[in-house]
Amino acid sequence: MRLRTALALTAATLFSLSGTAIQAGAATRAPQSAAGSAAASAQTAALLPAADPTPVAKKKLFTIRDERLQESSGLAKSQKYEGIYWTMNDSGDTARVFAIDTTGKVKAELRFKAEVRDVEAIAVDRDGTIYIADIGDNKANRDQIEIYTIPEPDALEDAENVRYHRYDFEYPDGAHDAETLLVEPGTNQLYIVTKAEKGVGGIYAAPPDPSRQGTNELTKLAPAPTGTFTDGTFLPDGQRVVLRTYTGLATVRWGEKPNVIARATVSADQGESVAVGPSGSGDTVLVGSEGSNSAVYQVAVPAPKSGAQPSASTTPKASTADDSGDTSKSHNLRWILIGAAVFAFIITIITFPPGRRERLDRMAENARLTGQSPPTPHRRP
Hints:
Blueprint: H1 2-47, E1 54-55, E2 58-63, E3 72-77, E4 84-89, E5 96-101, E6 106-111, E7 121-124, E8 129-134, E9 145-151, E10 165-170, E11 178-183, E12 190-194, E13 202-205, E14 215-217, E15 219-223, E16 229-234, E17 240-245, E18 248-253, E19 259-265, E20 271-276, E21 284-289, E22 295-300, H2 321-351, H3 354-370
Parallel strand pairs: 1-19, 10-14
Antiparallel strand pairs: 2-22, 3-4, 4-5, 5-6, 7-8, 8-9, 9-10, 11-12, 12-13, 13-15, 16-17, 17-18, 18-19, 20-21, 21-22
Helix pairs in contact: 1-2
């Protein structure tokens, strides 16, 4: 009787301990799961554009009043000349670019002998090379696109037959329309952001050292943020990009997965251009619109509101070795205890089946009353 009771108590105790182990394991995993969910939510929120971008204050800097510039479709800050910006006309013009100052006056016109189709963007790298991007393709039927390069001149004056280089590119997934060329400040790496009137565009990288012989294949890096982008520029830190839309700006944190960290609306005519501001600090940008007598404004770079930008700690990460070790140990202990409890219960049943236990108890009680020796249990063959 005492042995049976002891075995039963042992089984009950082991089952209780296994339950405690289960609860402890769940409690250990719950904070990790909750933290991972919160981190994933924070990262997802960072990838989403603001639903209601804040209007940004603008300061009119100048108006382009030159009859040669009827459709200014891009803007890029000079690396060689203080207060000078390079611009060009949209499709339909010849191969030429213009240097303008911060009063809107044209200081130089540079012509080069190339057959351009739809020039949509302009950029200047850290070495003073001007990139003219013939990447427009409204009907998405071009087999290839072209980017031309010319050096910033030694003097700001009109020039004909400027020496140039031509680079041919093709997309890996078919033709796309695009109006945005980006040049990374630290490496001069070229990127193209395609323009999608419907759906989502893409971010494509040129080979690090493109060839002038043959066609260079672009590499798709990631989907573009939501928006119809008409221009863009890296900020001097190389970690942020400002993309222009028809009605606003988007600040993008650059990296393996570029994501929008802030947006702002800009009240103006059809937005077509954006460039780093005159100070070069990266705190402001210039924005322009297409058309004759177009105004250029200076605005602050959209920045995330306080507390809105996720920190590195919010990035989801796998469990550490210590966490996984603790979880594994509690898991093993739980099953050991459950197995021991089941074993004790089975031994109790086998050794003392219900009917036999009752007979032995009665015989033991009779022996006690009559003074005889109690019977010894024997296993059945």
